[in-house]
Each structure stands twice: as C-alpha cells, then as structure tokens.
C-alpha cells in the first residue's frame, strides 16, 4: 500500500492503480483520485487548482522528493470520447451533440484565460465533460499570475503543440512561456485529432522521436483535413482551421470563439 494513500485515510477505500508511467502514479480510491509524481508537478498542480478554486480539488502536499494531489474523482468523458459518435453516424442529433461539446470546451478555455492563466498542455484527454460541467484537467504545466512553484517548461504533447512553441523548444534550452494563442492552437489540434482520429501534422516519420516531430510541427506541415475527416462539417472545420492559423496573431481568442456558442 502506498504510504501516501494510508496517510490520506484512503487505504480502506479499495485503492485501484490506474497509471504508473514516467514518474507519475494515479490511483482511484472511492470517490477520490490521487496523483503522485516524482518531483514537484503534482504539488504544483495542486497549488494552481487551489488558486483557481477548482471544485474537484481536495488537497495536495509534498513527501520528500515526491508530491501528491488529491481530487474528487471526475466521472465524465473526454473530448476524444465525446466526438466518437461522429464515427458512427451523420444525423442532425450527432451534429448538435458535437457542437454542444465543442462549445463547452471553448467556454472552459475562455474562462481559464479570463483569469490570466494558460493551460500549456491542452490535448483531447485533458478536456472532460461531466454533466453540465466542463473540466480542464492536468494543469501542472499551466502558467499564470499566482506565485506557484517554478519549473522549466519544455512544452507538452507534440501532437497538440503550437508551431511557435515547437520552434522555441528546438532553438533554446530555456524555459518556454505558454500563451493564450498557443492554447488556441492546441484546442484546434485537439478538435482535429478527436474529429478525424488523425493528428493535424503530416509527420515526415510518425514514429520519429520528439525532436523530429516538433520539427515538423514548427514547419507547420499541416495534414489535409478534407482527406481525413469522417464527413464534411463546415461549422466545425471552420473553427478548427481558424485555431490552426500559422500566425498566432491571426488566431481567434477563446472569448471570441465562445461568443459563437452562447451558454444555454
């Protein structure tokens, strides 16, 4: 039994190991999720969630060289799963459901940007729909106005990294600042990926290591949406392509995108 779970009083809640890879361990114990990382990232995420007043947040702390984060278990589905019906049929109900989920994701990002924070690693599995609430999760890479533990950010998942962030990673070993415009690219890339089941970048070698993948991202080697989409959906595709504008200044803001999807 992990001693952190014991100290949190979760040993008697039948803890289930869900993930143990690359220095991150995730457990579910009853209605609580516990993330444990080597280093500061789980604790950093906890600081950010506390500052943001995120409802699922419960507690966080440090344990020697490790840190941990306790959250209410979010019983929802990811953006990836939410767009799965697009690959089953093309009914008006499916179109409506997709646009409803897209609108909810856009508004969640707009809310985050409105309080001065950027996510820094937005991807399909980091957008979770739970009833009428949309959660942006895995905020360990987020940057904003609060004094939280510093780490040298070197980008997130290559498939959803903006070209300008990829360029910064490849041309320097320094900390990379996240931006709202880069988050918008990541949102568009996440929508493309979930919608088509293919990444938005036409990689020279999809099996290459991260530096080569980032080189293709930096060169904006964008794939052809019309050849990968399950069926034409102009309203969604227009939004995706706006998010993936090569010039960060030409991308819409999250607030501008959210205005297309008024709250119910």
TrEMBL record:
Highest taxon, organism lineage = Bacteria
A Pfam family that this protein carries is: Pkinase
Q: What is this protein called?
A: Serine/threonine protein kinase
**Domain (Protein kinase) ranges:** 1-264
One example of the protein's molecular function in GO is: ATP binding
Q: Report keywords, A-Z.
A: Kinase, Serine/threonine-protein kinase, Transferase
Task: Identify the SUPFAM superfamilies for this entry.
Answer: Protein kinase-like (PK-like)
Keyword check for Transferase: yes
Give the InterPro entries listed for this entry. Answer: Kinase-like_dom_sf (IPR011009), Prot_kinase_dom (IPR000719), Ser/Thr_Kinases-Pseudokinases (IPR051681)
């Amino acid at each position: 039994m992990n001693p952190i779970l014991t100290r949190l009083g979760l040993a008697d809640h039948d803890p289930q190991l869900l993930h143990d890879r690359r220095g991150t361990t995730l457990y579910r114990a009853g209605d609580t999720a516990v993330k444990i990382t080597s280093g500061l990232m789980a604790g950093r995420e906890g600081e950010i969630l506390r500052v943001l007043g995120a409802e699922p947040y419960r507690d966080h702390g440090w344990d020697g060289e490790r840190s941990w984060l306790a959250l209410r278990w979010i019983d929802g589905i990811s953006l990836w799963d939410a767009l799965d019906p697009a690959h089953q049929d093309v009914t008006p109900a499916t179109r409506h459901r997709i646009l409803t989920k897209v609108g909810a994701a856009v508004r969640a990002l707009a809310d985050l940007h409105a309080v001065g924070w950027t996510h820094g690693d937005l991807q399909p599995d980091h957008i979770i729909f739970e009833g009428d609430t949309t959660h942006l999760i895995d905020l360990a890479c987020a940057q904003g106005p609060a004094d939280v533990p510093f780490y040298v950010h070197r980008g997130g998942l290559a498939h959803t990294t903006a070209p300008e962030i990829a360029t910064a990673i490849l041309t320097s070993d320094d900390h990379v600042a996240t931006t709202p415009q880069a988050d918008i690219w990541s949102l568009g890339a996440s929508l493309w990926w979930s919608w088509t089941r293919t990444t938005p970048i036409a990689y020279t070698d999809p099996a290459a290591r991260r530096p080569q993948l980032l080189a293709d991202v930096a060169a904006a080697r964008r794939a052809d949406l019309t050849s990968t989409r399950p069926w034409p959906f102009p309203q969604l595709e227009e939004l995706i392509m706006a998010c993936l504008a090569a010039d960060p200044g030409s991308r819409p803001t999250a607030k501008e995108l959210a205005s297309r999807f008024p709250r119910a």
